[in-house]
Specification:
alpha/beta; about 15% strand; about 210 residues
Length: about 210
Amino acid sequence: MDNHPCLSSPEEPQIHESAQGPRVTPATGRTASTPRPVPGPRSAATPRPGRPGPGPARPAPPAQRPHPTSDDARTDRPENRSAPQIQLIPASASGALDAADEAVDLLLDSGRAPGEILVLTTGDQHPWAAHELSFGEAAYWAQHEAGDDVFFAGAASADRLKPRPVVIVAVNGGDAVTGALTGARERAGALLIVCGDPERINAVLGAGV
């Protein structure tokens, strides 16, 4: 059983559930982490995110980092892309990428397969996406089609993305947050994790439930 503390806490703002809307579980308690470095040129010894390899090992997660509950991380809910479970991780625009990376780490540690996770950004591209795109769009999208690894993409590319059981959105800027969150919810099979300003996210997701 996963021993990480739960993302949810009743003390944070909540996205209220209506009779027809999805169950929403806010999460809190995320401690500040050191920003992740932008990866250098990829070599045979450098695995892509979520893929085992001889590269640097992931650091052990701090005891108080938030994470999805064990039930959410280990058990898929019946596929209903219109109503995934929603979890909110409060974060500033500058801290949203770090929060999303932590959520990925904890999901992988909890037993999620890398290919089940999609990470979207509303502002600048995630460093891994920018790195992979430097090798050309054909190679980048081939990774998405393979579906065997965590995939990072800009929310503006949502029309090209296939649904995955877990979608994480880093609200790190941009002017199309409403469309990004709507598209992310449509592509999340079981769990949607949103990292960003709670008031802004509640205003968007609350309008659709």
